[in-house]
Fold this protein.
Amino acid sequence: MRTTFINTLTEMARRDEKIMCIIGDTGFSVFEDFEREFGDRFVNVGIAEQNFVSFGAGLAAMGMKPYIYNVVSFMTLRAMEQILLDVCYQENPVVLVGVGGGFAYATAGPTHHALQDIAMLSAIPNMTVVCPGDPVEMKAVMLASADYGKPLYIRIGRSVDPVVHQTPIDIEIGRAIPMKAGTEASIFVTGVMLQTAVEVQERLEKDGISAALYSMPTVKPIDEEAVLQAASAGRPVYTIEEHSVIGGLGDAVARVLTEHHCSSGLRKFGVRDEFVPVTGTREYLDDLFGISAEKITEAIREELQK
C-alpha cells in the first residue's frame, strides 16, 4: 500500500499544485522521485513528530493540501496534542498517512506496534479514520481524499500487502464495501486483515457455513446502515482487525448494535488488552493473539455449531 500511496499521490500532485508531501525522516527509497519532480512541494521535517504535524496544519491553514506521512506509532503517540489542537480543533484539512498499522513492524517490538491508533484518533472530534484493506482500496481512498476538505487519517500496512480486489473499485468515505453475501453470520473487517477475512469466509463456506463479508475501510464514521442491515435477521456479527479490541472497529460496531437495540450477538477478533510478550513475525503474533485465519475460523465454527 505504501507504493500505491506515493504513486497515486504523484498522479494527484500533477493535477493539483496545492498538494504537498511531508515526511518525518522516513520512507527512504520511496519519495525520491516525488522530490525530484515537485521540488519544494516535498519537505522532510526530520525526526520531530510534533513539529511535523504542526507544520502540516500550518500548510493546510494557508490553503495547501498537505499529505503528511510517518510511522503510525511515532506520529500518533508522539504528536497526539498537535493532532488534537492544530489539526482537528482548528479543522485544518490535513491528511495523515500512517504506515505500519497493527503488527506491520512486528519484529521491532512494542515501540513500533500500532494497536491503539484507531481508538485514539476516533475519539477526536472532526477526525475521519480510514483503514484501506489492500492496494486497490488504498488507491480509491487516495482519490477520494483529494477534495475531502476535513482532517483525515489513513492507516496502511507497508509495501507487501496482498491485492484482494481484482478490479478497481469506487470508495465513498463512510461506506462499507460488500464482499460476499451470506445468511448465517456477518463478518466486518478493516485494514490489513482483509485477506485474512476472505480466507475465513472461504474456509467457513467449505464447512457449509454461509457468512456475509464486508470490508470496512472507514471506521469513523462507521457505516451504521450496513451494520444494521447485516444484523437485521438476528444473525451473529463478527469483527476482525489488527488493533486492540478496545476502541477499534469492534467497539464501533458494538456501539451501533447497542444504540439500536439489536439482538444480534457480537464477537470481536483483535489484539487482547496487553503488551506483546514476545518478538516474532506479523503472522506469528496474529496467531498468538488468535487472529490468524485458522484460529478465527475455528472459533466462529465452534460458536455457530453450538
